[in-house]
Amino acid sequence: MKEKDLEIQELALEVIDMLGVALHFAGGKDIKKLIDLYLEELEEVPEDTPYNQEQMIALINTLKTKYPKLFV
Question: Quick one: average pLDDT of 42-64?
Fold first, then answer.
């Protein structure tokens, strides 16, 4: 069971890394802060809303609107 837990943790870190890359290419300056804000915004999304590429893009656009100083 520990091996599976380790795999899940590694995958979670890879997902966070990919989010950081997406935020970088969206013009983000403070990636760590933006990841925290992204996760906060994600908590506000209704549970029945599908989480897909469109939702991720919408969340990043929300961050760009709400926190323009954190983007180029």
Answer: 96
- Show the CA angle centred on residue 13, arms to residues 12 and 14, nearest 5°: 90
CB 72, CB 29: distance < 8 Å: yes
pTM above 0.85, yes or no: yes
Residue 39 corresponds to which tokens in the numbers above? 């996760």
DSSP track, the chain: -HHHHHHHHHHHHHHHHHHHHHHHHTTBS-HHHHHHHHHHHHHHS-TTS--SHHHHHHHHHHHHHH-GGGB-
Domain ranges of the chain: 2-70
How does pLDDT run across 14-26, given as a tens digit for each residue?
A: 999 999 999 999 9
Instruction: Scan for tokens 């870190």, then name that residue.
Output: 13
